[in-house]
Amino acid sequence: MDILWLTMSAAVAIAVPALATAWAQSRIGASAAATLAEKPELSTTVILMIAIPETMVILGFVVALMILLQGGA
Amino acid sequence: MIVSMARVRILGPRERLEAVLGELQDMEVLHVAPPVSLTPPGGAPSAEAPGVEAEAQADRNVATTRKRIEAIGWLLERLPATDGRGRTRPDLPDRKEELDDLLSRLHRAVAALGEQQVGRSHERARVARMRELLETFRGLDALRGHSGATHPYFLIVETPDGRAVQELREGLARLLDGGFELLEGPRSDGETPAVLLVPGDRTGEVERLLAGAGIQELPLTAGGADATRSPDERLEALDARLATLGSRLDRLGRRYRAPLEDRLQAEHDRLLALEARASAATSRHAFVLQGFVPEDAVRRLESRLHERVGPTVVVERQGREEWQGELAPVVLHNPRLFRPFEAITRTLPLPRYGSIDPTPFVAVFFPMFFGVIVGDVAYGTVIAALALLLRRGSAADGLRRSVAEIAGACAAFTIVFGFLYGEFAGDLGRRLFGLRPLLLDREEALVPFLALAIALGFVQVVLGLVLGAVSSFRGHRRESLGRGLSALMLVLVALALLAAVEVLPHGFFTPAIVALLVAFPVLVVLEGFLAPIELLSTLGNVLSYARIMAVGTASVMMAVVANRLAGAVGGVLVGILFGLLFHLVNFGLALFGPTIHGLRLHYVEFFGKFFSPGGTQYRPFGHWRPEPGPPSNPNAVKAARSV
What we know:
The complex is a heterodimer. By secondary structure, chain A is mostly helical.
């Protein structure tokens, strides 16, 4: 049972930030496409803007890993 | 590194100004600063100073030169480039009025030839279409043997949906009560060719109907074969005319293109000189011109002006306290090994003069991060091969060369870390020739890999804070101290954490926490109440480097899965192909992901701690070059590097 809760917690810890990142990237991506249509020279900035929300899922990944390792899974 | 600049003031007799400008234009080292006023503060303008009329004349000269450049540019766009054979290359007149007159005549001639070419080309397209339609009627000669009892009409019915022909048929039926013949050809481009035979005595009514329906009649006077020959002849005539027009343009191009190109260069140079001249302050007897020169070029500038213009012209170096560093132009100059990485820093605005050029740090950290993430001998070797391929035939200072050299550095780090992790196409090296990890096994040692990633982040973020403190020390002492203290607190946090998990002796824990508690109020005093939030955000920045481990682990797991799938699928050949395909996908991801994440870590986490954008590009007054894009004068960098 403990293992179940442990793995569920880890899954939630990464799934929620992953969904949040995906939502943020979808919004930024749409705006980025519009920006690039008018100013192609901003491509570097745009790629970086898209990469920025990934911090959320990276932190979620770290937390999930800590849950699993601390729990001895 | 940002090249050190000196602000200089060039003074001399007014009659020497043109000579000085000529020398400066050839030297291409002076970044001209905005004009200075020779009027004493609070004083009235000197009666001897050139007045409003002189300024207006200068403006007129600039406007005329711009207009001439535009006119020459217009001609060069239209005059064909020739191979040089039979080129007569006459000199263009030196007198401006004669030159403008010649340009005006050439403009008229080229415009007329161009118009004729366009007109004839359109006509040719129409005739070609007409010929195509007439081909449809070729087989209808028998119908044209009329003797006056019937009259033929050759029609083009514009009918996007095909309904217009049907409506015509219905109109004719009503008018002629079925006494007509309407034959349709195949519809193309929304037009249907048709031939209509009507009784000879009803032509008037039919023509009124056709006019009312807006239907065109092909102007054919002869039937069948004659009609199709006529367009052929017209096409031949039009081709001959177009060839004549083309050869006339070629003749003009052979004669005038090269001298016009020379003159374009001269006029651009003249415009640059006029603009530089406008930046010089003049009185009746003297001039002053000021600007920025790379520190190492000042002596060369002094001696050249002394030799070529004379001792009456003086180059005076202004003290650092007389000018603001923020106003100085910026040119980056890095050692050969680091120079390709300027391509990465140039995607951001230039750093301010007096701040720190991040290129050397990027040159060390970026390929290292790439290598830590990918860390595979096989992938590194392929990247090295691609880098060599990209480098072949690339221009010395081009972007392609820079990308190839950056890729080369990334490949070297990838191979090194590949050996440290014991990876060759994932675990293939281990299986085939017993490759063993020298540092850690990424498949198993997740926590040590995470610790390595966070440690790299810690080093880079602390370095960023220290650089920020150094960079702002001169102008913003308080901010500098705040950044330095943040770096110190970050180190204390790391010490406390390491002591807590007993990597360091536990005795470190209490002193580190006490030091943090003491530093905290000092930080708030120095940086305000938002400082604690910034400190937390800096800790978040360090944790953000966990992506190095996350992306790296994903990469190695994909490679391992590729190898296992290859072994699990059917026959040997299919397995190898499947494995290769999977590795190819993983390799593509390994190129893209680490690059994006590496750049992001630099731009957001690292640069955010010290980078001060807003520098002005160094653009020395020099000769015009036709290459587009910044820097507008490519000699800017070359000149700075040559000093």
